[in-house]
Specification:
Number of domains: 1
Oligomer: single chain
Strand content: under 5%
Largest sheet: none
Mean pLDDT: 83
Protein name: MATE family efflux transporter
GO molecular function, one term: xenobiotic transmembrane transporter activity
Low-confidence stretches: none
Number of strands: 0
Distance between the termini: 36 Å
Order of helices and strands: HHHHHHHHHHHHHHHH
Structural class: mainly alpha
Number of helices: 16
Main location: membrane
Subcellular location: Cell membrane
Helix content: over 70%
Pfam family, one: MatE
Length: about 425
């Protein structure tokens, strides 16, 4: 639910910007995958915090839970500052690189630059959320996100269209609203961690850089970062393919990508829950129970997200019309994208929860390799061939999604059943 609410930021933006027209939606659609790419570089390190804290929680060592949390916070703080600066100054060349036309270039750059200011707040809340998940406290972050999303519902139209003495900022107004709400959530999260009343207490004196610990964090986190960033980089490259088919296709892709991000969020939620439970049980030496968790997560993700996919298949046109009312070309193309992609959502869920098993076992390289194979060796080549070398055009890009979801699920499930992740975990425990 917390992840769905996080995605609601983008959905709310898309809803209100759709009232400005297809170009406004297209400008944000171009910015979103690149923003996600930069965010992914740091998000993998917060996952490392979840795994390390989960291990210590499973082993019943509260001192190491607090120490690991303090180290995670300070590392992510400096990484977020660096990525914020990179995002702001690279906005214009990045938007040009991925093919922003003159009609949407300024809006896409403005949206990207304002969003970059919020990276510090976004990452500080991400690290709070990840640490809470590591000890099994998932409700508190959800309630904080719920409050900020409700606030964003009010601020979005206020800053996009203006009211009274507040001027309308158009596309960049959506980013301003998000940065304000992200700042509030980050402040609340960090105050809770310093107070130490919710299972984790961070301390200033434990934030002195511990380079052996940071090296361990990077060892776990960099493959996870690369896995997530490879996913968003693939989405960015796909946008570059879509741009050759015009603004209507970009807007249709943007709506389909928003729906995909909404669906991938519960898949990631199951994956994060799986990571937390697997890491805690491995910390407690319960390898068989960790495998039972993986089996159960697989079933929940496959059947649950297949049901969601079939529902979205049936509602594809009204969902698309909700975001861009009155533009029949965008509605037709967006609905077709959703109908082609939606039946494979259960397969996407299987891949994500198995990544959660591998991450929880500390085998983050497996998740990286499966994602790179799926996205770069299957999805992008399929999209290029079907869209550029056949009569399908933009529809060929849509078909690349179910094809890659099917192949990735088969590869991940086969590797999971081979059981190497269990052998490696047992070996590591004996070495410790």
């Amino acid at each position: 639910m917390a992840n769905i609410l996080q995605t609601a930021y983008q959905l709310i933006d898309t809803f209100w910007l759709g009232r400005l027209g297809a170009n406004a939606v297209a400008a944000v659609s171009l910015s979103f995958p690149v923003l996600f790419l930069i965010l992914s570089l740091g998000a993998g390190l917060t996952l490392a915090g979840t795994v390390i804290v989960g291990n210590h929680k499973g082993a019943g060592d509260q001192k190491l839970v607090n120490y690991s949390s303090s180290q995670t916070v300070i590392v992510i703080f400096f990484i977020s500052l660096l990525l914020s600066a990179i995002g702001y100054f690279a906005a214009y060349p990045l938007m040009k690189l991925i093919g922003a036309g003159p009609e949407i270039l300024k809006d896409s750059v403005d949206y990207f630059q304002v969003s970059s200011f919020g990276f510090l707040f976004l990452f500080m809340f991400f690290v709070f959320q990840s640490l809470m998940r590591g000890i099994g406290n998932v409700m508190l972050p959800m309630f904080i996100v719920l409050g900020t999303v409700l606030l964003n519902l009010i601020l979005d139209p206020l800053f996009i269209f203006g009211y009274g003495d507040i001027p309308g900022y158009g596309v960049s107004g959506a980013a301003i609203a998000s940065v304000i709400t992200q700042g509030i959530s980050a402040f609340i999260g960090i105050v809770i961690l310093f107070r130490g009343k919710m299972g984790i207490k961070i301390n200033w004196h434990q934030m002195k850089p511990d380079f052996p610990w940071i090296r361990k964090m990077f060892f776990l986190g960099i493959p996870a970062s690369l896995e997530q960033s490879s996913r968003s980089a693939a989405m960015t490259i796909m946008v570059m393919l879509v741009t050759s088919f015009g603004s209507a296709a970009i807007a249709a892709y943007g709506i389909g990508a928003r729906i995909l991000s909404l669906v991938i969020v519960p898949a990631l939620g199951f994956a994060i829950a799986t990571t937390t439970l697997v890491s805690q049980n491995i910390g407690a030496g319960q390898i068989k129970r960790a495998e039972k968790i993986g089996n159960l997560s697989n079933k929940i993700a496959f059947f649950g997200l297949t049901s969601v996919g079939l529902l979205l298949f049936a509602l594809a046109e009204p969902v698309t019309r909700f975001f861009v009312p009155g533009d029949e070309k965008v509605i037709k193309d967006g609905a077709l994208f959703i109908k082609i992609m939606a039946p494979s959502f259960g397969l996407l869920g299987v891949q994500q929860v198995l990544n959660g098993v591998f991450n929880g076992a500390g085998f983050t390289k497996a998740s990286l390799l499966i994602s790179v194979f799926s996205l770069w060796m299957i999805r992008f080549p399929s999209a290029f061939i079907l869209s550029e070398k056949t009569s399908l055009g933009a529809e060929g890009i849509w078909w690349a999604f179910p094809v890659s979801n099917l192949i990735a699920a088969i590869v991940a499930f086969t590797y999971y059943k081979m059981g190497y992740w269990k052998i490696r975990t047992i070996r590591n425990r004996h070495m410790d």
